[in-house]
Design goal:
Layout: H1 23-26, H2 29-45, E1 49-51, E2 61-66, E3 79-91, E4 97-103, E5 110-117, E6 119-125, E7 131-137, H3 138-149, E8 166-168, E9 177-179
The chain binds nickel (II) ion.
Length: 180
């Protein structure tokens, strides 16, 4: 398929609530082609997650693929390529929070320290329209929250509580950086 342009902070699509995909839309060629474009675009960018609004498609669709080794993010807990349609997060009561230096392909060059709950339940559909309920903890919970924030018009900078921790990534060399 095709590597698409990733739009950057300031583009109005990144601030919209994306539309839910209807059951009859999910298996269509159009949506499958869009997912293929998202995979191509994510791999070309070297990221670990991409939401459809980042390529200017305002629909509730995101992909995540976390390699275990060999990425520029250090050693991470692997997550095979997963397509999330219409995802809905609920944070588990009393979940502890942890911070990461998050980055975003739509906010190139910057990193920000963001604390997020580390235990979530997730409802979503796959590309066949089948409904799933999953539980994510730790870094995977962080990545899900970052990606699915894109589907409601939010960016990681909105989740920061200390703006002194918004920095250029070439000035930061931590082990635990996360770049979508
Ligand atoms: Ni992002």
């Amino acid at each position: 398929m095709a590597v698409r342009e990733i739009i950057r902070m300031g583009h109005p699509t990144l601030r919209k609530v994306a539309r839910q995909l209807r059951q009859e839309d999910i298996g269509t060629k159009e949506i499958r082609n869009l997912v293929e474009d998202m995979v191509d675009t994510l791999r070309a960018a070297g990221g670990i997650g991409l939401a459809a609004p980042q390529i200017n498609e305002s629909v509730q669709l995101a992909i995540i693929q976390i390699p275990k080794l060999g990425s520029r993010y250090g050693v991470l807990e692997e997550l095979p390529l997963t397509v999330f349609v219409n995802p809905e997060i609920s944070v588990v009561a009393n979940a502890e929070s942890a911070g990461n230096w998050e980055g975003c392909l739509s906010v190139p060059g910057l990193r920000g320290w963001v604390e997020r709950p580390q235990h979530i339940n997730l409802r979503y559909q796959d590309l066949e329209g089948v409904r799933h309920i999953s539980e994510f903890t730790g870094f995977h919970a962080t990545v899900c929250q970052h990606e699915f924030d894109h589907l409601t018009g939010h960016l990681f900078v909105d989740r920061m509580t200390d703006m002194t921790k918004l920095v250029f990534e070439d000035l930061l060399v931590p082990e635990d950086v996360y770049h979508d």
